[in-house]
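hiii so um. not sure if this is the right channel but i have a protein structure encoded as tokens and i wanna go backwards to a sequence. like what aa goes where. can anyone help
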């Protein structure tokens, strides 16, 4: 299985918001970086993320190459 490493910014821009609980005020809004970092800090599941690393202050997410 091929994987690639992406930043939280790239993940936030590409992930389908339907994988997360619906935002009640604006259901079509993209997922924010803050929401992703919150999930990382609280050990919550991130859809399509295989592994998570922290390099210095940068969060690196490992996802499938087709992501």
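sure thing!! here u go:
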């Amino acid at each position: 299985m091929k994987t690639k490493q992406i930043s939280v910014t790239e993940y936030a821009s590409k992930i389908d918001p339907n994988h997360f609980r619906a935002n009640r005020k604006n259901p079509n809004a993209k997922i924010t970086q803050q929401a992703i970092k919150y999930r990382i800090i609280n050990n919550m599941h991130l859809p399509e993320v295989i592994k998570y690393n922290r390099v210095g202050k940068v969060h690196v997410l490992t996802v499938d190459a087709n992501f």
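oh and DSSP finds two helices and three strands in the chain.
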